[in-house]
Structures are given as structure tokens and as C-alpha cells.
Design brief:
Blueprint (H helix, E strand, L loop, with lengths): L2 H9 L16 E4 L2 E8 L1 E2 L2 E2 L10 H22 L7 E12 L7 H16 L6 E7 L8 E9 L2
Parallel strand pairs: 5-6
Antiparallel strand pairs: 1-2, 2-7, 3-4, 5-7
Helix pairs in contact: 2-3
Length: 154
């Protein structure tokens, strides 16, 4: 068992099957040693996390939705690494989009649900640069969407 697979098992995390694209794009592209993973929405094993933060969804629900996005990112990354997450050198950058009402401000704290997961699973390699943006709407009413750039070993 690989180091990262052992860590996932220790944390009780089972990655989902990589979600299929819902439009005309690919789930990830590779440029050199960088993997660019397309935006992953908050669709998890427990269902879809839909709605707006500040308009019925709490901060904690937003963090859970962002964590689901992180699980989907890791699933896509695993596919991009031919099943070997030990190839991950660094999470370079995450871009988070949070479906919010105009008065909802703790957008960075919502994104911590995804960021904390990366560090929890990947350790130091999970630390990353990040953007967290509040938006008026996300596809199909999802609460959170996150895309990312990852460096992998050849």
C-alpha cells in the first residue's frame, strides 16, 4: 500500500470515483509536471451540497461542501497519476468559488474545508497558494466549486 493510500485509510477516507465532466471539457490536463484539474463541485457520496452560504447554508455546511470538492479533486488527481498519489510533489494552487449571498463574508473559512483536507492527506505537500471568491451563482446550484494545480513527479 502506498504512503498516501495508507494515510487515506488511517483517516477513514475513501475517494470517490472521479466525477465525469458535465459539459465540453476534460477533467484534467497535464503540462510538464503540472496537473490542472477542472473545477470540482460539491457532489459527494452523501448527495449534492446545494444552496447559498448566508441564504440557508451555514459556515459548517459550506466547509463540508468544500471538503467534498477536495475529495473530488484528489480522485481526479489520482486518475491523472495513474492511481499513484505518492507521485504528488505539491499542491500548487487551489481556486475556490463559493455560492454566497451579498452579505456573507467568511468565504476563506469555507475554503478551509478543502485546504485542510489537502494538508490532512498530503502533509507538507498539501500546503498551497489559494484564491477564495464569493459568487452569485454556481452551475446547477452547487454550494462550492474548486479547481487546482498540482505538481507531480514524472
Amino acid at each position: 500500500m502506498s504512503r498516501i493510500e495508507a494515510r487515506l485509510s488511517e483517516l477513514g477516507i475513501v475517494l470517490p470515483n472521479p466525477p465525469a465532466p458535465v459539459a465540453s471539457y476534460v477533467p484534467f490536463t497535464r503540462v510538464g509536471n503540472l496537473i490542472h484539474v477542472s473545477g470540482q463541485v460539491s457532489r459527494g457520496a452523501d448527495g449534492d451540497h446545494l444552496g447559498r452560504l448566508g441564504g440557508g447554508l451555514s459556515l459548517e455546511q459550506g466547509q463540508a461542501a468544500a471538503r467534498v470538492c477536495g475529495l473530488n479533486l484528489l480522485a481526479q488527481l489520482k486518475a491523472a497519476c495513474a492511481g499513484d498519489l505518492d507521485r504528488v510533489v505539491q499542491v500548487v494552487k487551489l481556486n475556490g468559488f463559493v455560492n454566497v449571498t451579498p452579505d456573507f463574508n467568511p468565504i476563506p473559512q469555507v475554503m478551509n474545508g478543502c485546504s485542510d483536507l489537502m494538508v490532512e492527506v498530503l502533509g507538507e505537500a498539501g500546503k498551497h497558494a489559494r484564491s477564495a471568491v464569493g459568487v452569485a451563482n454556481l452551475p446547477m446550484g452547487f454550494a462550492v466549486e474548486v479547481d487546482g494545480v498540482f505538481e507531480i513527479a514524472s
